[in-house]
Fold:
Amino acid sequence: MNQRERIQELEAQLAHAEGIIQALRDHEVDAIVGTEDVALVRLRQAEEKHAILAAIIESSEDAIISRDLDGTVTSWNAGAQHIYGYRPDEMIGQPNGRIIPSELQAEEATFLERVQRGESIAHYETVRLTKDGRRIPVSLTISPIRNAAGAIIGASKIVRDITERKRAEEEISKTNQRLTALMKALPVGVSFSNDANCRHVSGNSAVLAQFAVGPIDNLSASAPHSDAPGRRIRYFVHGREITEADLPLQRAVAEQREIPPMELEVHLPDGRRWFTEASGAPIRDAQGNVTGGVAVTVDITARKQAEERLKHSLQEKEVMLKEIHHRVKNNLQVISSLVDLQAATLDPALRGQFREVRDRVRSMALVHEKLYQSENLARVEFSDYARSLLTYLWRAHGSGTARIRLTLDLQPVSLSVEKAVPCGLILNELAVNALKHAFAGRAEGEVTVALHTSAEGRVSLRVRDNGVGLPAELDWRESPSLGLRLVQMLAGQLHGTVQAVTGAGTEFVIEFAHPRAETSTTATHD
Amino acid sequence: MKPKTKGAKAAAPAKKAARHRLRLFVAGNEPNSELARRNLAQLITGVLKDNCELEIVDVLQDFKTALALNVLVTPALVVDSAGTRVTIFGTLTDTHKVLAALRLPSAVA
Structure:
């Protein structure tokens, strides 16, 4: 082989070697052929792994830093730049002490010692310094870096900026503390369920006191433990026992809506009974799904007891008032009977006058009788009163009244006692007047009594007879008759008017105001 | 660069050239070996046509042939034509390099 051939041979070998190197460099090789065997090296895959790792490190929001055992930074990713503010060229090759506050340098030295012993440090929370001098809370994870021989040559650090997390934690802690304080301070019971089936119900201290349970007891009636206190508490609405599903908390969760306050009677296992006004609302997660519920229970036992006492006291007063009306009526009736008895001993001319007195007292007694018979002790149903009074008068005035027909046209009008008494006396006078004088010399006649109310709230009471009429020469307003004078006086008391029409018989019309509002302002309880 | 039509005419004499002996060394179905196989098949269909004979050697089965030819890595293509031998390492993705080794004008590909 001459020299030229030798050179060509060497060049060929060189080209061959270059081809191999180029293929290796281009990662186009997948096996190396040795003298004995073939070694698959999967270079491409290894390269891909490396590229993925590099991408992860670069895209990580966490700082990923490596350093050697002297503390010199050997790598510094984009996350590190973002957190600390230093660029890679400012940090690589530099000691990493500048990002550690002076008082924490010793801590860092102990980390280094531990890493050198092969230990890792996970999620250690401490403080670091940024380029612009801010102190930021961070979470550190430090692991040793080993070479191929397994010797520790440095440390890798993953540093997470936990400023936001710390802030959020503080917020949550503050909110929790506020909530806890609120729960403790609330005078009403608040109970919670954190599951959509209300199998576990817990509550604030007010609820625990209300239901006489301990802080770890389960208030749910469907609690897994058969001896859970919640299973032995019974609930009643208007005396009817209800199931757990009807309670506001359970309904709020099941119906996924707020449940307005409802009154419950609670029977505790120890026999104690109390009343509560309870309302419920569902608790939803961020997606709007119901994940539990909350109920508020207000102890209204005292209010219920006060209501009961008030009701009882009112009932007592009502009974007393009825009793008083009864006695007044009885006394008036006694007076009327005494007058009647006295009249019997007198000569007929005086007897008639005594009987007029008797009828007047009687008409007043009847008002009290109607009062204690009515539901409403302050008001008299005047149509009812008029019917009773006229029936009495027709009976009391003996056989003569049989030929005088009584026609009633009465609308219901409820009058207060102050109006019922004068109005009753007026009716008494006019009816007695008609009975005594209207049909003198007549075989028969008719008296019509009408009671009407107008839309304007005026009451009109009409007493009409088809008798002989008033004497032509009589000015009834000037009449010496006590009856007619009484009618005018009493109409004055009612702030009303009296009119008389005479011709074919006589008609008296009494009108007075009876505002509708009076009904509501003076009405007592039903 | 020559226009395509001219390139096609220039390729015509190549068909009459001496037959090439191609030996492709692969390592089983490893990705680079598979890629080399596909690239070579395209080259044969498109350019070499019947003007070659191809042998595929799997070094996992037979590494001695590879060693004898100094093929130290796979994939590798050993081309014997007109008394000369050229070895191309890699996936044969660089068509110019392959055609140069075959002494064919590169514009054909």
